Amino acid sequence: MTIHACLLRTGKTVVRRLAVLLAAAVILSGCTEQRLFAVKAVAAGVPSLAPFFEEDGSLGTDETKLRPEQAHSGLQQGNTPGLYGGTQEPKVCDVDRLKDFLTDPRNRQKAREWARIVGITPDRIEGYIDDLTPVLLRHDTLVKNHDYKKGKAVAFDALLEAGIAVLVNDQGLPAVKCSCGNPLRSFDKDPEKISVKFEDGNKKWDGYEKSDVVTVKPAPEPLERIALIDVDDPDQGINRPVGSTGENDEPFDATKQHAVPRVAGMTFDQASQRLSELGLAAAYSDGLPPGDAAVTASDPGPGTELRFGEAVTLSVADDGEEPGTPPKSDPTNGPSTNDPTSDDPTSGEPTTVGPTTDEPTTDDPSTSDPTTEDPDTGDPDTGDPSSSEPTTDRPTTGEPTTSEPTTAVPTTPTTSSTPPTVEPTSAEPTSAEPTSADPTSVEPTRSEPVTSEPASSAPGSSSAPASGESAVVPA
């Protein structure tokens, strides 16, 4: 009895220890999964504690009354129309003053650190700044900011409030915070796992919503102009040449609507670029796709009228599909992209793109199906291989073409008086499977070109071979 009680106590002790270990493992696992990245909030108009340039308003000013816009996507490319704002004010960034400051020999150490962060040598600072463009943020934007402490640039993740003036590069990426000259880089962490800290005078601002925070990725190719929204008049747009400070701005009507183009079959980069040219934004639901991913559909579909800056959500092919592969038929994009004429709906000429299978199809009249009307005679050619009646426009040996089935089979000229006979295994199709002699099939290795001219052995008749059929060459 004593032994039994001892074993029982030992078993309970082991169970308790296992339970404690299991609970600890669960807690540790949960802590790892919930680990967040600290992000420092930077409010518009609030001076930095350790700036590169003294923040006294002489280098740049923020628009403190601009509320953050609702974002259509948390990840946006630098060429997104309306991503940034502009103003008719003479300058929100004094780039000449910034260049003078960083090229002053007294600020050599700051210039060295500043250049190191942006990835250039100090002697290239002036040229680099000349290629930047001043804009105003319209969204609360995540960046990697840099203070200057004890002779070194110190990086920290920051959330810049909408209304802050920044300089962006030719791919639309924030590069400099105007008011203090601090260099900026792209945010490189998961934006879904951030914890924003409002401290050091940077109180939570009106309109802040964590779900509307954006991260900017580079445009697919360098920009020539940046399409801005006038923050003083949202119905007005501003086209600002890259590298200019507002002196060459061109206003445009931001209320004008544009039709969504057909983008199915393009790569993602091509589609987003095409939308950007029309003043429309490219949106995506599952993170930024690869640039060469094949676009399969858009929402809304082609032809929908949208205002400047409105978003078109792009769907892309699965990873297993080849980039640029024409997608399946999609109701939001009109006819199937397997249709060779779908790129130009007004064209009646088929392209060289054929069906994706070896079996003939009749569902799509725009494909290279021989069931078309003969342009020369106006007669329809059924081309139905399952029909027991052969076509009536094949040349015969010296006799006019008739509708008699036994005379429609091409034969070689003979000198005997024996009429040609129909062999069951001849070129006459007897089933739905086309044979090699079926005029509707095209032999890629045949040396004889396809022609619409009648065979030379046939006398003049009222029926010529249909356009697109190959002439029968005597054996």
Automatic annotation (TrEMBL):
Residues 348-370, 383-431, 452-475 have a biased composition (Low complexity). Residues 254-318 form the PASTA domain. Residues 233-253, 291-475 are annotated as: Disordered. It comes from Streptomyces umbrinus. Coiled coil: none annotated. It comes from the Bacteria. Residues 371-382 have a biased composition (Acidic residues). The lineage of its organism: Bacteria, Bacillati, Actinomycetota, Actinomycetes, Kitasatosporales. Pfam families: DUF6777, PASTA. This is PASTA domain-containing protein. Residues 330-345, 432-450 have a biased composition (Polar residues). InterPro entries: DUF6777, PASTA_dom.
